[in-house]
Amino acid sequence: MRLVKIGIASVNTTVGAFQANTDRVLDLARKMAAEDVTLGVFPEQVIAGYPAEDLVQWQGFIDHQWPELERFARETAALPLVSILGVGVALQGVRLNCAAVVAGGKVLGLVPKEKLPTYNVFYEGRTFGHGQPGMAEEHRGVPLGDYMFQFDFGTVAPEVCEDIWSADGPMRRRAYSGGELVVNLSASPFRLGFWETRRELIATRASDHQVTIAYANAVGSNDGLIFDGGGFINQNGRPVLETPRFQQGFTTAVVDLDRTLRLRTENTTWRVDKESWVSAGGKKVPVVDCTQAVKTRREKLPYPVPAHRSFFLPAPDTRRTARVALCEDILDALSLGVGDYFEKTRAFKLFGIALSGGRDSLLTLLIAHRYAKRARPDNPGSLIQAFYMPSPYSSQQTRDAAETIARELGVPFQVVSIEEAFEREKAAAQQMLGTAKLTPITEQNIQARIRAQRMWNWSNSCGGLFLQTGNMSEKSVGYTTIGGDLMGALAVIANVPKTVVMYLLDYLQETTGYEGIRKVLAKPAGPELAHDQVGEEELMPFPILDACFYLHAGEKLTPSEMRTALTAMFPEVDAERLGGYVDRFVRLFQQSIYKWVQAPLSLHIGNLDLDRERALQLPVVTGSAWLRDA
After folding, report:
1. Tens-place pLDDT, residues 145-155
2. Could you tell me which of 262, 264, 190, 250 has the C-alpha nearest to residue 226?
């Protein structure tokens, strides 16, 4: 048996905080060594923080990483531990995103990332260069390229993040060249349902290539990207370990690498495929001999037996229901995003929320409070200030709901009327218009803008983080006010559809029993900027609105295709009415792009986020003739 204890680390980094990031990695490495870990696996770009985006173009940003990598090597020199961690290097005018292999006080090798994602939220092809098959360079006296590394416990094949997502990635040739333990360093953002996708992919790759895979992922949030952490160990297709998510730390498991080789001898398909690769001229990946660099301590490692002590019976089922998993994942992700933005910017002292008594601001408050409970468990409410700013159209019902939830959460609550300011601004706007009439929509926007201005004034004076509370559905059709409720320093739920907002609030009401949530849900959703406003009456039913958004923005369907899909989805709704909803949605969506490109930084939780900078990149100025039937 060749028993190896692998430690999978999730590290919460800050972009550019090289020393602090390295200190976190050092702390975990020392703790791993104290637990007899043989191989410690850390995330992609863990020294620099991820994503660094165009900072990679600064030579100083690259140059500052190497001294920290060398410091890590020096300070772990006495540990019987091999560490693999992410670092950026510059080679002949090209920046490379590398996995660094460290042991015995030395940097033993660098393996650059080959597959650079430039889709969705990723722009790596803009800043980094590609590693290449057969690449054999040197950086500061260290081998850099397409290498594997031989230690006293086996042959390790490092790779970086996207390399595992391509069927044409480096894993295939490295497995055929003798690689046993593939180590993947990742910084893979949270996306709804993506955890299961990662798990399935890693199991597939481990089975296809008959290797053991150790996968580590970043945790935390930088700007609007949220990383959920978590990692995996999978041996030849069999799951060994899944690590906790949304928290920094490490988890360990023991594997027998002899089992990986034995399973290769049994798998005739793998053997035949390898023979075909060799016959076709496949070139073996060179192996760097590191057996003298460090002597690992593995003699006391226990054989990896199932926790429930049966090789034949299933383990206890600890899986969450689909409802709990969806809701808790979103809430954990968004509270992590809010908290890390608050802490890492170092610019704010507390959160500020304009609480309307409606659903969106309520959910935003609950997310901020979820973070505050972790940051200040004894007095979470002290981190938040809530304001209720009534106009002539605000109801006693929403005021009571806002006041009730603030009291239940222990959040300071102020009522600051905008009625006088509203009348003054109407008069000023009318004076500017002359004989033209002030429109009803202008009256609504005046109210929203006064509230936003007051929140900014509060924020400027007390160092408060003004949280924007709008949802994705209403933002997509411009049901929001520039300079008003579209404004804020951080948009918390800007990528959460309205139907999901309501689903989350139903879940939170069930699990917390807050009376304030019940009171908010008792009233139809509406902005209260005019008499008896109901959002679904002014727009369309929210399930249909969200379906339109998904089909048009996600599936890229034209209006005629959308009608076909919606007829199948909502057979109870008259086809002509559905067609009207489609036409209305597409018109509003196209007309509102200029609005949502002005929105504040938003937190990302899916592949369909409404963010021109990172996700849905649409021109503001465009014709619409192509939307009509050919």
Report:
1. 999 999 999 99
2. 190
